[in-house]
């Protein structure tokens, strides 16, 4: 006798109105990764609040996402710095006022640039840790009452940089390691309240600002070094996001979903001239404290 029956399909995780009545609060929602995550949820019925630092970019992203579904409500919450918990509380209050609730949180605001250790100042390290790690903590702090009330779910946008030592990314690796630890501890502490917490760790995703700015080599060269032989797509990220917020993942918490085509397993970070490129960078003038 089979274990599943027809109700498995009708309760289903893959309906077109899967997230109808749900609201997602997204920091970094104007960036490529978080924007496509939000687009997927809105296409499947959710409403959304897009939080960002830059007004023009945040307004444009919200408008763009809203155009995906005729009755979608997508609000823009610009001029918010995730390092400031009070500005996040204001954003959460505005979201509840305008959209009624918050069910899902995507903590995606992040800062990144390439720098060798000798040219990475203490303040630069602190800035990235404050945006990525403290900002993630602040986001959940501000959303906590809504998450508790609605037995919500969290996705932290993480990375794979801290699974091993990645040069030029000391600050980001340290911050994202903290984000994974934060998510794990929240999964344990908030699980009894019915709140799930997971990380999504994208690898090299085509047509993202991060890949354009941070990766080395041509797209073909990058793809050749990835086990699945292609760059990721924004749709890969959308699918993973839908899964993690859907009932299909209702027993998944404290996990990291890596969406990278197997990339990190082969230490694939484009530093083909290692260690020559690092030694050159460390020795360049302009050492910073
Ligand atoms: N290389 C080395 N140091 C850098 C740097 C770079 N490319 N960019 C910034 N810094 C340093 C600054 O020099 C400063 O340190 P200092 O005081 O010792 O000089 C420190 O970082 C803070 O810089 P500031 O511009 O005041 O920071 P901020 O808090 O406004 O923003 C970032 C920091 C990381 C967000 C900024 O670099 C940025 O806007 N990046 C682009 C957006 C982004 O990263 N998006 C993520 C996509 S993956």
Radius of gyration: 19 Å
Small ligands present: coenzyme A
Total number of strands: 7
Low-confidence stretches: none
GO cellular component, one term: peroxisomal matrix
Organism: Spathaspora passalidarum (strain NRRL Y-27907 / 11-Y1)
Protein name: 2,4-dienoyl-CoA reductase [(3E)-enoyl-CoA-producing]
GO molecular function: 2,4-dienoyl-CoA reductase (NADPH) activity
Structure description:
It contains ten helices and seven strands. The protein is α/β, with parallel strands linked by helices. It has a single domain (15-283), classed as NAD(P)-binding Rossmann-like Domain (Rossmann fold, 3-Layer(aba) Sandwich). β2 (47-51), α3 and β3 form a beta-alpha-beta unit. The radius of gyration is 19 Å and the shape is globular. The chain binds coenzyme A. Residues 31, 110-113, 115, 119, 121, 123-124, 127-128, 131, 209-210, 288 line the site of coenzyme A (COA). It catalyses: a (2E,4Z)-dienoyl-CoA + NADPH + H(+) = a 4,5-saturated-(3E)-enoyl-CoA + NADP(+); a (2E,4E)-dienoyl-CoA + NADPH + H(+) = a 4,5-saturated-(3E)-enoyl-CoA + NADP(+). This is 2,4-dienoyl-CoA reductase [(3E)-enoyl-CoA-producing]. Keywords: NADP, Oxidoreductase. InterPro entries: DECR2-like (IPR045017), NAD(P)-bd_dom_sf (IPR036291), SDR_fam (IPR002347).
């Amino acid at each position: 006798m089979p274990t599943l029956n027809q109700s498995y399909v009708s309760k289903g995780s893959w309906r077109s109105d899967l997230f109808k009545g749900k609201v997602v609060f997204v920091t970094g929602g104007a960036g490529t990764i978080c924007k496509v995550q939000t687009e997927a949820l809105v296409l499947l019925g959710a409403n959304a609040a897009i939080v960002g630092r830059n007004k023009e970019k945040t307004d444009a992203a919200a408008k763009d996402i809203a155009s995906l579904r005729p009755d979608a409500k997508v609000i823009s919450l610009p001029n918010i710095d995730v390092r400031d918990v009070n500005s996040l509380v204001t954003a959460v209050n505005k979201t509840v006022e305008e959209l009624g609730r918050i069910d899902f949180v995507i903590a995606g605001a992040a800062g990144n640039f390439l720098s060798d250790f000798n040219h990475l100042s203490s303040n630069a390290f602190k800035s990235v840790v404050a945006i990525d790690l403290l900002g993630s903590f602040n986001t959940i702090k501000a959303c906590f009452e809504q998450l508790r009330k609605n037995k919500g779910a969290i996705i932290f946008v993480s990375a794979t940089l801290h699974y091993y030592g990645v040069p030029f990314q000391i600050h980001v690796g340290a911050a994202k390691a903290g984000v994974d630890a934060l998510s794990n501890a929240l999964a344990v502490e908030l699980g009894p309240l019915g709140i799930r917490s997971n990380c999504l760790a994208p690898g090299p995703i085509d047509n993202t600002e991060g890949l354009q700015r941070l990766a080395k080599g041509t797209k073909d060269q990058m793809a050749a070094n990835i086990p699945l032989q292609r760059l990721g797509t924004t749709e890969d990220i959308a699918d993973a996001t839908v899964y993690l917020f859907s009932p299909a993942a209702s027993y998944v918490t404290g996990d990291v979903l890596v969406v990278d085509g197997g990339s990190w397993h082969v230490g694939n970070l484009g530093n083909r001239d290692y260690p020559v490129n690092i030694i050159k960078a460390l020795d360049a003038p302009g050492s910073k404290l």
